[in-house]
Amino acid sequence: MKIIVMADVVGSSKRNGKALMNDLKAGVAKVNREGGHEILSPMTITLGDEFQGVVKNPQVAMKLILSMELYLMSLKNPFKLRYVVYEGDIQTKLNKERAYEMLGPGLTAAREQLIELKSTKNRFKVHLEDKEQTEKLNLMLVVLQGIIDQWTPAQQKVVTTFLELDDYRKVAKRLSKDATAIWRRKRSLMIEEFNSLRNLILKTANPKWELSL
Hints:
The N and C termini lie close together (12 Å). This protein has a five-stranded mixed sheet with strand order 2-3-1-4-5, with helices on both faces. By secondary structure, it is an alpha+beta fold.
């Protein structure tokens, strides 16, 4: 059984295609670099607005998604992704260079779930063999989406700067804002709650096993 990650852009048809593709390529390259040996088959753009890959365990999948979400928030024209993390069988040999030319019921099921996700308001869906882990992660991801999706692009810039600098005075200087106003913004934007939720998601996704090639 393998941990498959699939994602696509929400509302891609309404965006500038060239700019979207450039930003998506940069994000995919970023998470592949960060994932290193924990990514078994690198995230690969398979269609104009979709990518897929295979990772060692659920925690790596969550790290990848959280990293991509922060990257998207840092963009000049941010967009949203919807994600599926699916534990299933891949019958062909893993492609270590690109997530192409692989077949199996796991990949088919993951794509079906990604299509189904388009008819809902949710952007995240996890399906693992461990049912309890699956339920907990899906509940947490609903809350994560609720926090992230309420931020405006301007607020997202404040959030990503806070996460980088972790000091309201430094954030205020970077953004040329009043320090007191930035301190209040940290509370109103629920940045500490967001950080706590990120840590909880990663702990819940802690692998009980790891795949080997």
